[in-house]
Amino acid sequence: MGDFWPGNLLVVLDDKSGLERIYVVDWEMTRTGLPGIEVGQFGAEMHLLKRFHPEICGETATLLLDNFLREYKRTGDPSEEDMQWASVQFGTHLVILTGRVEWGAKN
Q: What predicted TM-score, i.e. pTM, was given to this entire model?
């Protein structure tokens, strides 16, 4: 639980480099996790990609996250508790993982 991140996505582009399809995969273990934890994890990972690799992911990370959250809200019917867990997971992930992973040059 709490391991939904950009590495779990396979993206298919059309001949004009537009998004055609996204597949969600899990290379280790597939099971449904707690919705708030999964959403918070993905949001934090996308934020970090945008923050530390803006030249590669700046626009696409925002676009992907905005679309993900919009569709999740539309189809997943998240509860207030789910969103509280998402906020906690987002912040916890940033605090704990950001300083431990080589996200970019140390200035």
A: 0.81
**Is the four-CA dihedral 32, 36, 41, 47 of positive or negative sign?**
positive
Cα angle for residues 1, 51, 101 (degrees, 5° grid):
55
CA dihedral 21, 90, 101, 106 (to 10 degrees): 110
Residue holding tokens 């508790």?
A: 81
Q: What percent of the chain clears pLDDT 70, i.e. is strictly above it?
A: 92
CB 41 within 8 Å of CB 89 = yes
Place of tokens 């207030």: 80
Nearest-10 crossing angle of helices 35-52, 80-97: 40
Q: Which two tokens stand for residue 52?
A: 């530390």
66 SS3 class: helix
Q: Which residues pair with 24 in a beta bridge?
A: 9
